[in-house]
Amino acid sequence: MGRKFWLQGLSGTTLALAVLLGGCRNTRNEAAGTGESAPVGSMKSDTGAMVRSSDTAAAAAAGGALSDANIVALLDEANKADSSAGALAVTKAASAEVKQFARLMMSEHHALRVQGQQLAKKLGVTPEAPANDPVAPLALHETSTLQSTPKGAEFDRVYMDQEVTVHRAVKDLLEQSKNAAQNEQLKALIVKAQPVIQKHLDQAEALQKKLSPSA
Questions:
Q1: The pTM is what?
Q2: d(CA 89, CA 91)
Q3: Angle 179-183-186 (CA atoms, 0-180°, nearest 5)?
Q4: Burial class (CB in 10 A: 0-12, 13-18, 19+), 168
Q5: How far is residue 15's CA from residue 13's CA, in Å, rounded to a whole number?
Q6: What three-state secondary structure class fits 45?
């Protein structure tokens, strides 16, 4: 898979994540009053094809707020996916710095996941992803992309490009989850996680810039 094609696919996956998150916000418009689910767009998990603008409007019209059960499920999925991506990157990366970053992702996203699972158990919240789960296709695309990218310098660039995009999406997810969370302990856990994700994003952007062919 060429780097140009991959970046186009990832862009589409990220757009889909933003679209679906938009559909989970607290506000509703008139189109949501029908109670019908709007189409989630033409994104495919294997290619991450770009979502049409008409799909964007339709998904945004779906409306509805994230429940605490939705939030717990989405954050668990995101942490699991990035921890798994880090484990794969450790075996395929060429750069020592990239491998170090990947190990950090394995460690800290696993820790965040455990904290979320422990809190859910304490609160008696059963994780339940929303009908239009925005994280699942992003995680699937991430996994398939990393698996199909050969070891070496190209993998390093692809992995770091992806980590920048994914952490920007997760950063947005945390912000929306913080605003939607009903339980104060869940909200506090999200607030605690936000600087960790920002740190990951800062490090990923620095490595991305360092590995850029034009750098």
A1: 0.72
A2: 5
A3: 75
A4: middle
A5: 5
A6: coil
| Helix spans in 23-181 (H) | 53-60, 68-92, 96-123, 135-148, 153-180
Which residues make beta-bridge pairs with 152? 93
Q: Domain span at residue 22? A: 3-211
Number of domains in the chain: 1
The CATH number that applies at residue 30 is: 1.20.1260.10
Distance in angstroms (rounded) separating the CA atoms of residues 127 and 189: 15
* Spatial CA neighbour of 141 closest among 49, 208, 205, 23: 49
Could you give the CA distance from residue 55 to residue 111 in angstroms, rounded to a whole number? Answer: 36
Q: What is the pLDDT of residues 116-155, one digit of tens each?
A: 999 999 999 999 999 989 899 989 998 999 999 999 999 9
Largest CA distance in the chain: 54
Give me the count of residues in the chain.
215
- Tens of pLDDT along 43-94? 333 333 333 322 322 333 344 589 999 999 999 999 999 999 999 999 999 9
Sequence-distant (6+) residues with CB within 8 A of 67 are 128, 180, 182
Give the number of other Cβ atoms within 10 Å of residue 181's Cβ. Answer: 21
Q: What is the CA radius of gyration of the chain?
A: 17
